[in-house]
Amino acid sequence: MKKIIGFLLTILILVGLYAIYQDFFVSVDQHLIEKTNKNYGAEIERICQKLKLPAAYFKALIVLECSGDKPAKSRYEKHVFYKLLAVKNGELKSYGKITQKHLRLLSDATIKKLATSWGPMQIMGYHCINMGYTIEDLSGEEALRYGILWCEYTYGEYLRNGDFKNAFHIHNTGKPFPKLSFSQTYNPEYVRKGLAYMQKFEQ
Q1: Over 90: is that where the pLDDT of 197 sits?
Q2: What is the DSSP letter of 186?
Q3: Which domain holds residue 66?
Q4: Which among 69, 91, 146, 158 has the fewest CB atoms less than 10 Å away?
């Protein structure tokens, strides 16, 4: 029993040291901060002031998602396309909140657009269905505003409570940060970098 307890304590200490080590060495790119402020800063401040949302969060999010580029490039996700196609063909009951009734009349070309992320915050196209948006809303001149509105709708409670760790994780994975595990984001540094960039934008 003592050996087991000792082993578990060692694991907990190593996990803690890993977390501290990772946070300590998170780096930020000043060029990306300047580019994001130049391309999106004023508009983000205007929108967030109206919605009472934290502008620094969205600036940091844009750094993570499109490196502050304007216009932001779209990103096709092949695995999402095949999931949506399976839903359309009745092979899969649903994907997210998307069911066959949403897709049965759509062409493969349109579904491909739904399987693509758009705008400075890289919102997946299929999210527009339940929000009443169009792909043009997510990719056009007002993509920033629609992206922020989607974030508010999806996890606005976390933003208003200042829980940015969970907000970043939800944006990337659709789920809050695991309580007893590591980040499940595509890039393990995603949340830590987001928080680090937020801090810089707030200065």
Answers
A1: yes
A2: S
A3: 2-77+115-202
A4: 91
Using alpha carbons, select from 142, 135, 116, 122 the residue that is nearest to residue 187.
Answer: 122
In this predicted model, what pLDDT tens digit does every residue of 47-82 receive, in sequence order? Answer: 999 999 999 999 999 999 999 999 999 999 999 999
CATH number, residue 184: 1.10.530
Residues 6 or more apart whose Cβ sits within 8 Å of residue 41: 59
Answer yes or no: is 104 within a domain: no
Residue 56 belongs to some domain of the structure: yes
- Rounded Cα distance, 140 and 171, in Å: 20
Percentages (nearest 5) of helix, strand, coil residues in the chain: 65, 5, 30
pLDDT > 70: percent of the chain: 88
Please classify residue 150 by burial: count the beta carbons closer than 10 Å to its beta carbon, then call 0-12 exposed, 13-18 middle and 19+ buried: buried
